[in-house]
Design goal:
This protein has 110 residues and is an alpha+beta fold. The chain has two domains: 3-65, no CATH class; 79-109. The chain is built from two helices and six strands, in the order H-E-E-E-E-E-E-H. The longest helix has 29 residues, at 3-31.
């Protein structure tokens, strides 16, 4: 088995597994009369593959992202905390600036 055929086999297996999971989820949403918004949905590929399968829901492609926010935590495709920590730093910096404006010069460290 060559490397390219092994990679093709892995991509085909990933595509089949993804489609099976989506089909099962779609049956569940149909049963419970729920609607999935493809405009608001994103996928993230956590893999070393350069390009994974296209994910479709009702023949609409769901856009792929390198990171997503789930329950307030930003998860990226490398499974590290860099994006989350950058986001938290930005939020805290803005909050600190607002508090400093409200409290004036008597608050905080010099």
């Amino acid at each position: 088995m060559t490397l390219s055929s092994s990679l093709a086999n892995t991509k085909a297996k990933l595509k089949a597994t993804t489609q099976a999971a989506l089909t099962k989820f779609q049956h569940w949403t149909d049963k419970h009369q729920l609607k999935v918004s493809t405009e608001k949905s994103t996928t993230i590929l956590i893999s070393r593959l350069v390009s994974g399968p296209r994910v479709k829901w009702d023949n609409q492609i769901i856009k792929r992202s390198t990171s997503l926010k789930y329950l307030g935590v930003i998860i990226n495709n490398k499974l590290n905390w860099a994006d989350h920590l950058i986001n938290m730093k930005t939020k805290l910096t803005h909050l600190h600036q607002k508090i400093t404006r409200i409290a004036g010069t008597n608050w905080g460290l010099n």
